Amino acid sequence: MDIEQIAVIGAGTMGNGIAQVCAAYGYRVTLIDIVPKQLERASASIQRSVEKLHSKGRLTDEQREAAATNISTSTEITAAADADLAIEAVLESLTIKEKVFAELDQITRPDVILASNTSSISITELGAVTRRPQQVIGMHFMNPVPLMQLVEVIRGLETSDETTATVVALTEKLGKTPVEAQDYPGFISNRILCPMINEAVYALMEGVGTVEAIDTVIKLGMNHPMGPLTLADLIGLDIVLNVMNVLQEGLGDDKYRPCPLLKRMVAAGHLGRKSGRGFYTYD
User: Fold this and answer.
1) Which of 39, 109, 135, 174 has the most CB atoms at less than 10 Å from its CB?
2) Cα–Cα distance for residue pair 176/186, rounded to 1 Å
């Protein structure tokens, strides 16, 4: 199936980034969110990002124009009815995602692929609430979407070869590198990344090192571009906690137990950059 029209459900950081990239590469995009102000923020964020990338030579004049003209917005999920592909990018909650997928299954044509940007939730479970589990797949973009090269493509138990091939080809057309993963808790990326972050929080809680010391050791000693606590602030501490809960529940191993300090910080609303305070303080 040829993909020309893409619906992105959820206009947060990931959703607006996905919409921006798809639009810049010539796809018509409908960005959907039930909160009008979120759509306004998303539109402003996309405009800033496009201008910044264009000024640095990372977007051509044609891509800049496409990103500005190819995105429409709506507060109604029924706006996805004409889409050739729907990408869900709502909150990392199984209940919310299942509701979105059930609605998309009713709204979209039977041949349309339904993709999730989930970072940890089972694609098989999402597919099970639809009548088309063969056409349900994970497209886990990395943050920030316009800059990060990787898209983790996750096959559910019933995801077809045809669906996977279509999504892999689309990912490449977006200038990204697709990597296939199977539907196990955390997939590849967060199965490895979030336990590392969680262990860094344990090291902080136990007084092994300060925030700055832990980040510096990982940056300079392991050649990572940023330390695990800085990265946690960027991802969102609530997201890290959600992933660790999924890993512990799904794999049944206490080595994935979320650090008590991580749980306390999330409970206090210290979520990282998006809240202005995490392991570091932000303006």
Assistant:
1) 135
2) 20
For the chain, which residues make up each domain, given as ranges? 5-182, 190-275
Backbone angles phi, psi at 75, to 5 degrees: -100, 5
Whether residue 98 contacts residue 130, with contact meaning beta carbons closer than 8 Å, is answered with no
Q: Are 179 and 153 in contact (CB under 8 A)?
A: yes
pLDDT digits (tens, 9 = 90+) for 59-111: 999 999 999 999 999 999 999 999 999 999 999 899 999 999 999 999 999 99
Using an 8 Å Cβ cutoff, are 247 and 192 in contact?
Answer: no
CATH of domain 5-182: 3.40.50.720
Which residues are the active-site residues? Answer: 119, 140, 152, 190
DSSP string spanning 66-116? HHHHSEEEES-GGGGGG-SEEEE---S-HHHHHHHHHHHHHHS-TT-EEEE
